[in-house]
Design a protein that fits this description.
The chain is of the alpha+beta class. It has helices at about 1-75, 85-95, 120-135, 170-205, and strands spanning about 100-105, 110-115, 140-145, 145-155, 160-170. It has four helices and five strands, in the order ααββαβββα.
Length: about 210
């Protein structure tokens, strides 16, 4: 009979341990899933933010080229008649090693001047021209995966589009920065998860 009296409390304690374990595991799974989802969203946002920051930086070079073209247009020169424009875009490309190509195009998408060995792939050309020339936005950005295109429309003195400047950069030049930041964020989420786990386990046991 003594064995049977000890068996009942022991069985009850095992049941309570299973309940504690299930509750704790369920809560930690929910918290882990939320943190994982937030981390995935942050990863997507981070790439977009880095691409936007890179494009904004490239707009400085695009603005310098635009200013030179507008000055020449005010003197009655067309883009292909400008002297020193090729040297200018070569110089602007040399200032930023991440710039693979600078392209000046006409309003119908014909290349007028170019700097850099890399060309817009044929599979991406129509998409880029449609985004830069067809969107109606003066400043545009297009991330196609391996390459980031930054466009800027050029207007003449009558406010008509006389072309556009397109700067191309490899996304690998800024993706590594995003990865480093993402790894730091992931480590922070792991610390948060560990801290919550350390607090929630004794809280649940105390409450029950």
């Amino acid at each position: 009979m003594k064995f049977e009296n000890n068996a009942a409390p022991l069985t009850g304690w095992v049941v309570f341990k299973e309940i504690y374990a299930k509750i704790i595991i369920s809560i930690l799974c929910v918290i882990g899933a939320m943190l994982l989802l937030q981390s995935s969203l942050n990863h997507l946002k981070l790439r977009a933010l880095v691409a936007e920051a890179t494009s904004s930086r490239l707009q400085i070079s695009a603005g310098a080229i635009e200013a030179a073209i507008v000055r020449a247009d005010s003197l009655g020169f067309s883009i292909d008649e400008m002297s020193g424009l090729q040297d200018l875009i070569d110089r602007e490309r040399g200032r930023d090693p991440s710039v693979a190509q600078i392209l000046i195009i006409s309003p119908i998408g014909v290349a007028i001047l170019t700097s850099g060995a890399e060309e817009v792939p044929q599979s991406e050309r129509e998409q880029v021209l449609r985004r830069v020339l067809g969107s109606g936005d003066r400043i545009t950005r297009l991330d196609v995966g391996e390459r980031l295109y930054t466009g800027r429309l050029l207007y003449d003195s009558s406010d008509a589009v006389m072309g556009a400047v397109i700067l191309t950069t490899q996304t690998a030049s800024f993706i590594e920065q995003a990865r480093v930041t993402f790894r730091r964020m992931t480590n922070a989420y792991l610390v948060i998860f560990a801290s919550i786990s350390a607090l929630i386990i004794p809280f649940i046991i105390f409450q029950f």
